[in-house]
Amino acid sequence: MIMRYRLNTTTASQSKESIWVALRRLVPLMAGEGRSIAIAFGAILVSSAATLTAPLIISHIVDRFITTGDYAGLLTWSGLLLCVFLVGLASGYTQTRTMGGVGRRILFNLRNAIFVKLQDLPVAFFNQNRSGDLISRINNDTDKLNQFFSQALMQFLGNAFLIVGAGILLVALDFRLGGAALVPAALVLIVTQLIGGWVKRASYKSLQSLGGLSGEVQESLANFKVIVAFNRLDYFRDKFARANTANYDASIRAGVASNLFIPLYGLASNLGQLVVLAYGIMLVSQGQLTVGLLIGFLLYVNSFYTPLRQLATIWASLQLALAGLDRISEVLALETDMAILDTTAVTGTALLAFENVSFHYPEGENVLHDVSFALERGKTYALIGPTGGGKSTTASLMARLYDPTGGTVQLDGRDIRSFTPQERTAKIGFILQEPFLFSGTVRDNIRYGNPAMASVDDAALSAQLDAAGLSDLLGHFRDGLDTTLTAGGDAMSLGQKQLVAFIRAALREPELLILDEATANIDTVTEQLLETILEHLPATTTKVVIAHRLNTIKDADEIFFINGGTVTPAGSMQNAIEMLMHGDMTS
Q1: Per-residue DSSP letter, 152
Q2: What percent of the chain has pLDDT over 90?
Q3: Both 537 and 579 in a single domain?
């Protein structure tokens, strides 16, 4: 059964998470980074301890040396204070550099994991999702996680230590003054908890809109020649403008949501310092507090609220990271429905056979219904029928680009699902109407996907081309095997691209070669060259030709007419023509 693989592109999770629950979701990403995390954690502890020690030293200096005029003691303790600051500086640098490496490695591993996962997913997944959004998940969403791990995580932990340590010292030094100083913090933390889910949803939608924008760019660039040919620049310009506007609006909302914490936490800091200053002066005037201790209190209030203000920025980074993780996790959680069956039972003798095969796309009607037929070795079969009748779907099932929703497809007498991808592709060649070429040379492209050719030198490759009767075809390329190709082969004619595709398939000598309208858009001379390639295939190779042009199928041993969910033997060429004409009129 064809699974539904459409990724979420509408809304974020509505669930609320505490910050610690959210952080626990990120822990698996740090697997293998234990040593670096420990070093960074130790460094941040030292840095936080240095920051918390400094106010005590300053308070001591004021009360013991400045008020008494003991300048020798002042210099000694000032030197000690300088050492504390230097230790904090060194430890801060250590944790920043260490976590920068952790972030880059997590980014590297995540991108690898997503790309490998995408390669494991079936064709149905890519039919249901835009490539631009997938690219955004690989590039943009993973980068949000990198920024959090390399910049914000240890800053968050350091700030957490400072907040807890400063809070404890405030209460320990004077319970009344310390308690009053912490009241504004309690209020803003309650507000933070209440609006945290809204911030995450805004961040998620911002990333989604960025994925949509990437999709529009990718679609426009991939089809630019068609856009220019039909003079639809205005249409795609308007589509991009709408996507860009949506991204702008979503980014503004996410920015407002995230940055709302900054003035809120700043207000709490100012209120805390105001409370300490007013209450502290009263206590000093009553002789219940020393001036040095009041200065220490003010420094600790600053040590408490400054990291709290910084947490506003870190919170925004965390929400972006979590939103990115949600989108990444959607991809990583997918499982292919194209599993390999653990069986090698042989139940037939035909090269390929459909046994009561039915198929439909997700949420679609049946394209094939209870279809059975067999293909014998060494024969040529033609598939004809009206547009949309199911020819290409039938070919895709033969190559296991999809699995049937009912029945079985057998290859060499075995369920095709029992073959590994390597075994299956070694037996089956597939040439499309629009062949895809890769950046590199003609040599690289004809060796692509052929393990037997991966390590052969030019002499051995030329010998194999000669043996297959393909050497003369290289004269159609300016530099022969060394001719440089761009991705997609846009600098080449369609005929040249098809020559590369045919040579690539012929060198593999597949047992089954499927040609899906492979000669539909090329000239007669090139078509004759391609027929020459096919003539040099082993006599045991079975060929399946999908074509609308009747001259392409005139030499077929058997013709199948596909329409309305059925596959019917057409018999003679004349009968095939009549069925095709009738099918076109009724389709």
Answers
A1: I
A2: 6
A3: yes
